[in-house]
Amino acid sequence: MSFTNPSDQKIKEILHTSKTIAVVGLSDKPERTSYMVTEAMQAAGYTIIPVNPMATEVLGEKCYASLKDIKEDVDIVNIFRRSEFVYDLAKEAVDLKPKVFWTQLDVYDEEAAELLEEHGIVTIMNRCIKVEHAKFK
Q1: Can you list the domains of the chain with their CATH numbers?
Q2: What is the pLDDT of residue 2?
Q3: Phi, psi dihedrals of residue 34, rounded to the nearest 5°
Q4: First-to-last CA distance in the chain?
Q5: Low-confidence ranges of the chain (pLDDT < 50)
Q6: Sign of CA dihedral 82, 86, 92, 96
Q7: Average pLDDT, the chain
Q8: How far is CA 30 from CA 40, 108, 120, 128, in A?
Q9: SS in 3 state form for 27-51?
Q10: DSSP state of 69
Q11: What's the CA gap between 68 and 114, in Å, rounded?
């Protein structure tokens, strides 16, 4: 399989219909990219669920240690971790059943994409959610 991202039209549809984003690797440091991107998505009206075992709260929201700890419905799982962690995160995401699994710039794992596709989870890789959102406002 050779992974390709969904079309721009599909990404636009995803961003316009999604409400909740679980952000794996969300830093509690305002100078970090994950914080700035997620803060912008929160300001755009998305509900944010931080996932970081080293924090208790980020951007005013309770932080979870892992995807396994989230009990509510999640539309998008957004990954701010290095590529070598993506497959294991994809396995956790399969149990959570989000509509979309999204990795940020320079984060990519073909095997994870195959696993997610087998479970009907749309996968977007190597794209910044904030940049894509700005394109389709």
Answers
A1: 8-135 (3.40.50.720)
A2: 85
A3: -60, -40
A4: 32
A5: none
A6: positive
A7: 97
A8: 12, 25, 34, 17
A9: CCCCCCHHHHHHHHHHHCCCEEEEE
A10: G
A11: 20
Tokens of 122: 């749309």
Q: Which of 36, 39, 15, 6 minimizes the C-alpha distance to 136?
A: 15
Looking at residue 1, its pLDDT comes to: 57
Q: Which of 65, 67, 62 is nearest to 78 (CA)?
A: 67
Residues facing 129 on adjacent strands: none
DSSP H or E stretch at residue 101: strand 100-103
Q: Which pTM value belongs to this model? A: 0.97
Half-sphere exposure (Cβ direction) of 133: Cα atoms closer than 13 Å: 21
Say if residues 121 and 98 touch (Cβ distance below 8 Å): yes
